[in-house]
Design a protein that fits this description.
- This protein has one domain.
- The chain has 282 residues and is an alpha+beta fold.
- It has a four-stranded antiparallel sheet, sandwiched between helices. Strands 4-5 form a two-stranded antiparallel sheet. The chain has a two-stranded antiparallel ribbon with strand order 7-8.
- The structure holds cobalamin.
- The site of cobalamin has 39 residues, from helix 5, helix 6, strand 6, helix 8 and helix 9.
């Protein structure tokens, strides 16, 4: 009889297998953090103990974070059904990919679980309890994928904040990535100025305060019109090589209809379809 679940590969070989798997799954970003990093509390306020990997899965030794980008031209139409559908697709792919990675590790003899990309039943739940049980943003930071921005998001060199994350908690000890040093955020404050809910207030880096209540209420309004989530604070961010990929180097273009008339017409066209207007301009 063949024994299943017998660990045979060493840490470096498992890491190589993970990189290959991400390549097959079209997952461009992956980083690894040992669970001890959460206990080092790199800044304050830090993630409370029960929100850390071992608070959720006591056997965990490493956290693998994967990131899938949001396509900028779709995000630019936000709030719209186009961005909503893109967001749903990215979410689905994230969860599916993370599940498959966790299963692969289990088959290799290293029990692993994936944490779903969000983890709340509906926006109404966030009114009373505004946090999820685990923060992918902090996991991505500790896995070396980026640094925090004024918009409260994790900014990455390749996609700025236009990337969504999911984490896999694994019992395998794996070669970690270094935490990124320096600051990608330019503090241009476009995110704060553009936020339709006035939810971003400047604070001490990296704990810029987001008024979660205002952001949540705004998104509840958009959801009733089928055009949530908002996403404006990630659209206007100048950081990310994706701006060059999509030929959008000017992050100020969203308030310049005079200089970019074709783009503004395209965005208005998309916004006029598929969601409820309820007498609003978009
Ligand atoms: C709840 C939530 C929301 C809510 C609340 C917003 C908010 N500011 O938290 C709503 C629905 C409004 C929302 C909006 C958005 N979200 Co959101 N959201 C989440 C979610 C599900 C949970 C965040 C969370 O609760 N983390 C756990 C807590 C511990 O972390 P924290 O809130 O950052 O807490 C800090 C402090 O508040 C403090 N703290 C928190 N709790 C406690 C408790 C105590 C006792 C103490 C002392 C301190 C403390 O410590 C932390 C350290 O700084 C995550 C997915 C996930 N599970 O990670 C996505 C996530 C953060 N969202 C994301 C995105 C992209 C957005 C939007 C742009 C919408 C969109 N999809 O287009 C906007 C941006 C809003 C903004 N600028 O912050 C991405 C971020 C990706 C990135 N590159 O960073 C995530 C990671 C989803 C994903 N899977 O990728 N979001």
């Amino acid at each position: 009889m063949t024994a299943h679940f017998v660990p045979v590969l060493g840490p470096d070989a498992i890491r190589e297998a993970l990189e290959r798997k991400c390549g097959h799954l079209d997952v461009p970003l992956m980083g690894i953090a040992p669970v001890e990093r959460w206990d080092e509390e790199p800044f304050r306020p830090w993630v409370p103990g029960e929100f850390r990997p071992r608070g959720i899965y006591p056997e965990a030794r490493s956290v693998i974070v994967i990131g899938i980008p949001v396509e900028l031209p779709a995000l630019e139409t936000s709030p719209s059904i186009f961005y909503r559908e893109t967001y749903n697709t990215v979410n689905r792919l994230l969860d599916d990919s993370a599940y498959r990675i966790a299963t692969m590790l289990g088959e290799m003899g290293h029990p692993s679980i994936f944490v779903p990309r969000d983890g709340y039943g509906g926006l109404d739940v966030l009114r009373d309890r505004p946090t999820a049980f685990f923060s992918h943003r902090h996991a991505a930071y500790l896995a070396g994928l980026g640094t925090f921005g004024v918009n409260n998001m994790l900014l990455t060199p390749r996609y700025g904040p236009r990337v969504r994350f999911t984490s896999i908690l694994t019992t395998a000890e794996l070669p970690p990535d270094p935490v990124m040093t320096g600051e990608l955020c330019t503090r241009c404050m476009r995110c704060a100025r553009s936020c339709p809910a006035e939810a971003i207030e400047e604070g001490e880096y990296p704990a810029t305060l987001t008024r979660k209540d205002r952001c949540t209420e705004h998104n509840i309004g958009l959801a009733s019109r089928y055009i949530s989530p908002c996403g404006i604070c990630i659209k206007v961010c100048p950081v990310g090589e994706d701006r060059d990929l999509y030929q959008r180097p000017d992050a100020g273009m969203y308030s310049r209809a005079d200089r970019y008339p074709e783009h503004h017409r395209a965005w208005e066209h998309v916004r006029a379809h598929g969601g409820r207007r309820d007498g609003k301009s978009f």
